[in-house]
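Bit of a strange request maybe. I'm writing a small parser for structure token strings and I need a real example to test against, not something I typed by hand. Could someone generate the tokens for this chain?
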Amino acid sequence: MGFIRGLFQSPQATTKAGDLTSPEIVSLLRGQSGTASGIYVTPDSALTFSAVFACCRVLAEGVASLPWITYRRQGVNKNRATDHYLYDLLHNGPNADMTSIAFRTALMFNANLWGNGYAEIVLDGAGRVTEMWPLLSRYMEPLQRDADGVLIYPYRDPIKGLIRYPAWRIYHVLGPTLDGLNGLTPVKLHRQAIG
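Reply from user aminoacidic:
Good idea to test on real output. This should exercise your parser:
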């Protein structure tokens, strides 16, 4: 009789107290939350839902297709500043591996799913920007201030461990926000509808 009862019980009912490996407990420990449908929705899992993917793609590619150009003001006029050191980096590609459109698409996909898009700014010895590399928003922790009040971006790189970036080393695309520092995660806000 126990076998037959087990067939009709929900997985939640069979989870033993103290079982820290159950999917429900693991999801809760990761900060994920369930829905009325019983589906746990995260930014990563939501991307497998075709409507979420389509919305993220349209928004990301729409923003990425806009020109990213440096200009120089000359009186009331403005002209392209093609001789500015940032022109090539912004217009053509921020690093050796990505085009400008691929870079901006990656930033916007992160911003659409997690509420924030981040990129690491790499400087040369003279303090000039030479590269920008996208960071995965899933690894960025909420922003903090150090003892001197300087804004810090704590990033938990899966290989390098915790990196505490000062604000001037991060390009931050901020989504809708309540505090002006951390974007709201759209998937978490709409997890019930997605679930």
